[in-house]
Design brief:
By secondary structure, this protein is mainly α. The chain has one domain. The chain is 88% helix and 0% strand. It contains 6 helices and no strands.
């Protein structure tokens, strides 16, 4: 018998035993992780559902939500514009410094004028932060408005353990009594 056979035998037995010992705990961990995610997803759905019911029941709370989102949009737009302004301040200064000091590489400009580094780095950071905030607020408002406007179709998509049909009916009755008859 060759040496390769013995090396294969010596190495494969411990690897097989180690695999048999290591895989079951990993499978249990993965199943537990999956269950935890499912529970968290159901809790998130339940929170969204009850928040939507509160907005349906109290339209003034939904108006407050929209006003707060408008304020967040203003702040996000301010961040994005500040970032663009910082970059707009830094760009001509970098060009001018490159011409003054005859610097070919860009990093040399920041050694000559270190204050430009702050503007050159802050610009993209603030712009990215502002754009991220804008997109997250738009997504939040769009999703919540869609849930409030199309509540019946939204409620049908939810699993039965999330819905509370008694509260739904009570909210629908309140809305019916609040709105004048259109007949």
């Amino acid at each position: 018998m060759s040496g390769e056979f013995w090396w294969t035998l010596v190495l494969s037995v411990p690897v097989g035993i180690g695999t048999g010992l290591a895989v079951p705990p990993l499978q249990r961990w993965y199943k537990h992780r999956h269950k935890t995610r499912q529970i968290r997803h159901l809790e998130d759905q339940r929170d969204e559902y009850y928040e939507t019911l509160v907005f349906l029941r109290n339209p003034e709370k939904f108006s407050q939500f929209l006003i707060l989102c408008a304020m967040r949009l203003i702040i996000a737009a301010f961040f994005a514009l500040c970032g663009l302004q910082f970059f707009a301040i830094a760009a001509p200064e970098v060009r001018q410094a490159r011409q003054e000091f005859h610097i070919v590489q860009g990093i040399g400009v920041f050694r000559a004028k270190p204050a430009l580094l702050v503007f050159a780095l802050a610009g993209p950071v603030f712009s990215t932060l502002g754009i991220g905030l804008l997109s997250s607020v738009f997504r939040l408002v769009r999703a919540q408005t869609k849930r409030v406007d199309n509540f019946d179709s939204y409620a049908e998509t939810l699993p039965p353990e999330v819905r509370n049909k008694g509260i739904e009916q009570m909210v629908k009755d309140e809305i019916k009594h609040r709105l004048p008859n259109t007949r």
